[in-house]
């Protein structure tokens, strides 16, 4: 008499388990997303640079640290004077702290152990017509390396904003053409992504300046490099998701 309730409970549990298994086996359906079209847009603007970021180096070497340091101080003073004479304001010039380390020069039996002292200059030049003359003057004054010349524009962010708007307009035209080919139209944009922008710097490549440094060290002198400002290419690429109507 006591077994019947137990059997009924077992049967009930079995039915519940079968029901849960059946529900799990039935795939759930989700509504299809609304139709969209995704396109990319790219825009490029070319501008003439109006400023240059220049990095110079002054290096001296001697068996004695004091002598190498004194020589570097003298060169640094002459380079600073040349920079000032070229019209660059003091606020646009930064001189790194002096660095010194022990090293060797030469090869085999002619190898000499001594100390190298370095200083680095960073300056901003706004009159690009004077740029080449400035580089020649600082090399003649005692700079031993032109470590970098990067061209830019003082209103670069404004040009990037214009390129961004042009990229969006290009994306809309592309999306409209694609939708029209399918007999549809485009609605509102539901997402916009910027994939990247470029054009902060234009690097001047002037290999002849390496020869200038060598000539300066050997005492032969002579300058032959030419700096051309050219243009900076500002490129912006975006992606836009439009609703299809």
- What is the CATH domain class of the domain at 51-152? Alpha Beta
Query: Low-confidence parts lasting 5 or more residues at pLDDT below 50?
Result: 6-24, 205-226
User: What proportion strand?
Assistant: 25-35%
The CATH architecture assignment of the domain at 51-152 turns out to be 2-Layer Sandwich
Strand count, sense and closure of the main sheet? 6 strands, antiparallel
**How many distinct helices?**
5
Per the principal axes of the C-alpha atoms, what is the gross shape?
elongated
Oligomer: single chain
Structural class based on helices, strands and sheet pairing:
alpha+beta
CATH topology annotation of the domain at 51-152: Alpha-Beta Plaits
Estimate percent helicity.
25-40%
Alpha-carbon Rg, integer? 35 Å
Write down the overall mean pLDDT.
Answer: 81
Distance between the termini: 71 Å
Kindly describe this structure.
- This protein is of the alpha+beta class and 245 residues long.
- Among the domains are: 36-45 and 157-197 and 238-244, no CATH class; 51-152, Alpha-Beta Plaits (2-Layer Sandwich).
- Helix content is 38%, strand content 34%.
- It has 5 helices and 9 strands; from the N terminus they run αββαβββαβαββαβ.
- The protein has helices spanning 3-25, 65-85, 131-141, 156-181, 208-218, and strands spanning 36-47, 51-62, 93-95, 99-105, 112-125, 145-152, 186-198, 202-203, 232-244.
- Strands 2, 3, 4, 5, 6 and 8 form a 6-stranded antiparallel sheet that branches. Strands 1-9-7 form a 3-stranded antiparallel sheet, covered by helices on one side.
- A hairpin with a 6-residue loop joins strand 4 (99-105) and strand 5 (112-125).
- Mean pLDDT is 81; it is low at 6-24 and 205-226.
């Amino acid at each position: 008499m006591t077994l019947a309730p137990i059997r009924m409970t077992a049967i009930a549990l079995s039915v519940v388990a079968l029901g849960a298994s059946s529900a799990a086996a039935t795939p759930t359906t989700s509504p299809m997303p609304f139709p969209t079209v995704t396109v990319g847009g790219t825009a490029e603007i070319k501008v003439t640079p109006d400023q240059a970021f220049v990095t110079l180096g002054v290096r001296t070497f001697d068996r004695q640290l004091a002598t190498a340091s004194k020589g570097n101080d003298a060169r640094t003073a002459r380079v600073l004077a040349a920079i000032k004479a070229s019209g660059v304001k003091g606020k646009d010039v930064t001189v790194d702290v002096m660095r010194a380390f022990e090293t060797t020069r030469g090869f085999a039996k002619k190898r000499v152990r001594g100390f190298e002292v370095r200083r680095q200059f960073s300056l901003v030049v706004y009159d690009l017509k004077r740029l080449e003359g400035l580089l020649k003057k600082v090399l003649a004054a005692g700079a031993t390396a032109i470590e970098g010349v990067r061209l830019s524009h003082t209103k670069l962010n404004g040009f990037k904003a214009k390129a961004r708007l042009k990229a969006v307009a290009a994306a809309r035209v592309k999306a409209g053409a694609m939708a029209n080919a399918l007999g549809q139209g485009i609605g509102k944009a539901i997402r916009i992504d910027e994939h990247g922008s470029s054009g902060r710097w234009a690097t001047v490549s002037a290999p002849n300046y390496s020869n200038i440094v060598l000539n300066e060290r050997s005492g032969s002198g002579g300058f032959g490099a030419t700096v051309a400002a050219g243009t900076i290419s500002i490129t912006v690429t975006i992606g836009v998701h439009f609703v299809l109507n």
